[in-house]
Design brief:
Length: about 150
């Protein structure tokens, strides 16, 4: 069973390693290698930011991915995610993004920006109910409207 929990500073090393993985960097908007000090600064700021949630996906007690939810000034929840290199290809991304998207869409619209050369993440977005709304250069913008109230 996949669970999502808030990230803490104790997750710093795993997040750093996942983010600096060559495939993760290739799929990221910023492809630069992170420094440890820069990562710690980012994580400290992220955990203190009330407009951002950083979640760790765990399966059978093992961290397998991370999911970030940023609240845009326009009211949308912006999703981004990373899967631990040793958990790729297991459906973790689809399960964690769909899980959070289904919860968030009850109260707000969702957005994700994915590089066009990242078809795996585009499939994850579609599986979570987002649809391609526009393309800007090499970035695909996916959107999920707020779910209709019953």
């Amino acid at each position: 069973m996949l669970t999502l929990r808030p990230a803490t500073m104790a997750d710093a090393r795993a997040l750093f390693d996942w983010r600096n993985d060559v495939l993760t960097r290739a799929a990221s908007h910023d492809t630069q290698v992170l420094t440890w000090s820069g990562h710690l600064s980012w994580l400290t700021q992220t955990l203190a930011n009330p407009s951002r949630r950083l979640l760790i996906a765990e399966e059978h007690g093992r961290a397998v991915g991370t999911l970030r939810v940023d609240q845009d000034p326009d009211g949308l929840a912006v999703l981004s995610w990373t899967v631990a290199p040793d958990a790729r290809g297991t459906g973790v991304a689809t399960r964690m993004v769909k899980q959070i998207a289904d919860v968030l869409a009850a109260t707000q619209a969702l957005r994700a920006e994915i590089k066009q050369d990242n078809p795996a993440s585009a499939k994850v977005a579609v599986a979570a109910g987002l649809h391609l709304s526009r393309r800007e250069g090499e970035v695909l913008h996916f959107l999920r409207e707020r779910d209709a109230q019953a």
